[in-house]
Amino acid sequence: MASKTGSLKLERLTKEFGNGKEKVVAVRELSLTINPGEFVTLLGPSGCGKTTALRMIAGFETPTSGNVLLDGENLVAMTPDKRPMGMVFQSYALFPHMTVFDNVAYGLRIKKMSAAEIKTAVAEVLESMSLSHLANRAPNQLSGGQQQRVALARAMVVRPKVLLFDEPLSNLDAKLRAQMRIEIRNIQRRLGITSIFVTHDQDEAMSLSDRIVVMRNAVVEQVGNPDEVYRRPASVFVADFIGRSNFLKVENAKKARSGKASVVVGGVELEVAAQENALSSKHPVLLVRPESISVTAARSAKPGKSEGVVSNVVFYGNHVEYTLDTDEGLILAVVSDPIYEEIVPVGKVARYSFDEERAWLLPSESERATKEDQE
Amino acid sequence: MAIKTSGARYDIFTKIALVLVVLIIGFLILLPLANILVYSTQPSGSAILTNSWSDIVTRDIIWNTIKLGLSVAFLGTLLGFIMAYTQARVEFRGKKILHIINLIPIISPPFAFATAVIVLFGRSGIITRGVFDWRPTLYGFPGLVLVLTLSFFPIAYMNLLGMLRSLDPALDEAGSSLGASKWKVFKTVTLPLLIPGFAGSFLLLFIEAIADLANPIIIGGNYTVLASRAYMAINGDYDISLAAGYSTLLLLPALLVFLIQRYWAQKRSVVSVTGKPSGRPTMVTSKPAKFFLLSITGLLTSLVILVYLTVVFGAFVKIIGVNNEFTLDNFRYLLGGFANGAIKTTATLALIATPIAGIFGMVIAWLVIRKVRRGAEALDFLGMLGIAVPGTVIGIGYAITYNDPVKIGDFTVFPQVGGGGAILGGAIAIVMVYIIRSSPAGQRSGIAQLQQIDPAIEEASASLGASGGKTFRLVTLPLISGAFLSGLMYAFAHSMTTLSPIIFLVTPDTSILTQKILAEADQGRYGNVFALCCILIVLIMIIGGLINLFVRKTQVSVDRPMVTGR
Ligand SMILES: Nc1ncnc2c1ncn2[C@@H]1O[C@H](COP(=O)(O)OP(=O)(O)O)[C@@H](O)[C@H]1O
Ligand SMILES: [Mg+2]
């Protein structure tokens, strides 16, 4: 029952705080189109502007420039109470002077629905979130997870066109967080409400989202689905922020006939996929995720090409983690389902290999940083 | 109430501290109170008590007191709220200055307001008669309400401002994201959350208003309240039992209201349950709302400024409003001998009492939060008695108790410390009053600060081998130095400006500034009153500043790093 309404368009959304020397650009030229029913995550380190972006969408901050369009209608001049959006806050913001029932009923009462209708609607949403037995409790008599669910129920019951979440899971413990993640995603799918979720936790973003918007220093670094941002990150920053990475030194990077890039790593020539600016970079690096690298014992006592000395090895049962000291730099490798007897011990030489399909060539970060500084 | 350090028994330091604290509270407040009750059962006192409802005169006095308390509490809370809300939720220039101006009345001598208001708005007031040719009668109920509201609204202001600032801004935002307009959010979210604050402020103001003695004497006219009647009983009727009877009538509602207030203070914890406040609160943007708030705030602040200008101006002219010629005569007269002794005595006694009151408040706070398991509530209440009991009642209780040696049988357990002929001319009794009246402020801020500090820090000290006393001195006291400082400052300012208990304790050998001001006001010598107020305020600022400097300097290295932040 995905609804047709709820398409959100952000046009060059910019927010500056303060002025003169004190000026901070919190969000710069954020443009994004979100489809009805889509679940989009704003992901990035603390201070990169996620909350400010979300609050501009909700109407709590007035953009310095740019537009927010919902189903074609420009909302910029509209106050938050007029926008058909629900918000779940990091602190939950449950009204402490009201019971769970009254908290959830609040938005419906504002809409002047009849008492009978309110009762049915609230009972229904409480039921669907297994909160019925808590209806008469005060918020301070609930656990963190329960408060979280009441906050979600309260935002959903008014049937907003867009749901906004600002790090709603950050106050929960790890286990509960994983559970709430699934719950939020299921409810959102069932109701088909367009959702924007702010987080600095990559696991949260990966597991929840249809699309991820990676932000850095007030600008969007990449927009893509979870696979794209993981396998084909737009930059070293994105690769580093999402998951663990190896950035291998490469030589002789050039365009291959196939249209891919040809590089030499550890004396082996590979044909790898490349980010569009990778080949114009002076020192491109090759991203290989640790789980794409396999490790076997080498016969020689001295490391040759594609080999390195094991400087650290940790056995976890279901996987083993190696750190290899190679000519291409320190390489982290995660080998799953290991056979204990075959683990290469510290100090011994090991051979590493990976599928070139699993590698991705990126421009180096340092060049970009200096370029940006010069601008 | 809070987490206590574990441990099966009290250590020796705790035991000694506990015994000392109870002894001090016993002599400084419980014994005088007990004596009030005892004396009120003697004939003239018990006549007042038993006939308090049938005797029309007494009933009127009681009703006057309650009416005054309710009016001041209502108006003061309302104004305090408007000021606090404006401060917290309206964007305008001069916010900080406004805040400071709103706080000044807390530390200023009580007569400054009464006399300035008479000069400005009385029968021949500079404004009422001078500008509007209007000759209102200020003496009595209207004048009292005006002056007491102006003097005490800052208490409500502070209280409500603190609460407004501790509300999670996301609460208001949650309301508006659910479709509620700003006005609706104000009505359904902000106001209901402040109810405990309103109740608390109302009750505090009620206590302050019914306990006040200085203003009813100066501006009360024929409007007699319990405090001024009790004063009359001592100074006119010379009947201690009668004074004890009125004191008891005043004591009962004050204590009752104080208990209700404490009960409400407990309930307040509901407010800060969810999360820490983060982000900025939603500001008032509606033009009419802003206009309304800023007008009231502006008006009230102008009034406060006007009062202070009058005090300063009045101190430097011949007769304010009549002969506005510049003169230093007032100061020349006062500093040329008339007030020198009082200035010296007041400052000395206040300086002696200040550190004792500060430490005493801190020790009680520490015992209540960290050490005492059963009876912590009771100890907290006993420590607060000094502020809960009206000053008039304390003064009369002291006069009864300490104008003779305290004896059990023939054995003197406490020497005569008050009245003429006492050792040091009655100075000790005054210091004792200063201590018991000022320590509650330190106790409150100490408790607030200790509740924020992880008990594990003190446990760590104990596990490293420090004794209870060492831990308190080396760990606890430095951690609560901020509260200690504010406790000290308050103790000092409060001692310097307190009047009602002191009136009953001054002797020819120990004259106190506030009492001198009262005498001058009684004689209608307002120039001297204003000059004395100026001297007092300057003294408070100079010595307060020095205390601040001194304590900061010695504590600088431990300024707050340990309090675990967010
Ligand atoms: N109200 C404000 N006034 C001034 N600066 C602000 C304000 N809100 C946010 N900022 C600044 O804007 C930047 C982005 O903040 P924010 O959107 O909260 O980041 P995030 O949510 O990604 O951690 C930060 O540098 C922050 O200090
Ligand atoms: Mg944020």
Descriptive report:
The complex is a heterodimer of chains A (375) and B (566). With 375 residues, chain A is of the alpha+beta class. Chain A folds into two domains: 8-235, P-loop containing nucleotide triphosphate hydrolases (Rossmann fold); 244-374, Beta Barrel (OB fold (Dihydrolipoamide Acetyltransferase, E2P)), CATH 2.40.50.140. Chain A is built from nine helices and 21 strands. Chain A has a six-stranded mixed β-sheet with strand order 6-7-8-3-9-10, with helices on both faces. The longest helix of chain A is centred in the middle third of the chain and has 18 residues, at 174-191. Chain B has 566 residues and is mostly helical. Chain B has two domains: 1-39 and 328-566, MetI-like (MetI-like fold), CATH 1.10.3720.10; 40-270 and 277-322, MetI-like fold, CATH 1.10.3720.10. Chain B is 71% helix and 2% strand. Chain B has helices spanning 12-39, 43-50, 56-89, 95-107, 110-121, 141-166, 169-177, 182-211, 214-219, 226-235, 240-267, 287-315, 329-338, 340-371, 376-388, 391-402, 427-452, 455-463, 468-479, 481-497, 513-522, 526-555, and strands at residues 317-319, 323-326, 406-408, 411-414. In chain B, the strands form two sheets. Chain B has a two-stranded antiparallel sheet with strand order 1-2. In chain B, strands 3-4 form a two-stranded antiparallel ribbon. In chain B, helix 5 crosses helix 12 (287-315), helix 12 (287-315) packs across helix 22 (526-555) and helix 18 runs antiparallel to helix 19. The longest helix of chain B has 34 residues, at 56-89. Residues 1-8, 271-276 and 556-566 of chain B have low confidence and may be disordered. The structure holds adenosine-5'-diphosphate and magnesium ion. The site of adenosine-5'-diphosphate (ADP) has 12 residues of chain A, from strand 2 and helix 1.
